[in-house]
Amino acid sequence: MKKESRKVIIAGNWKMNMTPSAAKTAVARTAELTAGKDGCEVVLCVPFVDIIPAVEAARGTNVKIGAQNVHFEEKGAFTGEISADMLLETGAEYVIVGHSERRQYFGETDETVNKRTRAALSAGLKVILCLGEVLGERQSGITEEIVSMQTKLDLAGIPAEQMKTVVIAYEPVWAIGTGLTATPDQAEEVCALIRKVVADLYCDEIAEALTIQYGGSMNDGNAAELLSKIDVDGGLIGGASLVPEKFAKIVDAAQA
Question: Fewer CB atoms near the end CB (10 Å): N or C, the chain?
Answer without folding.
Answer: C
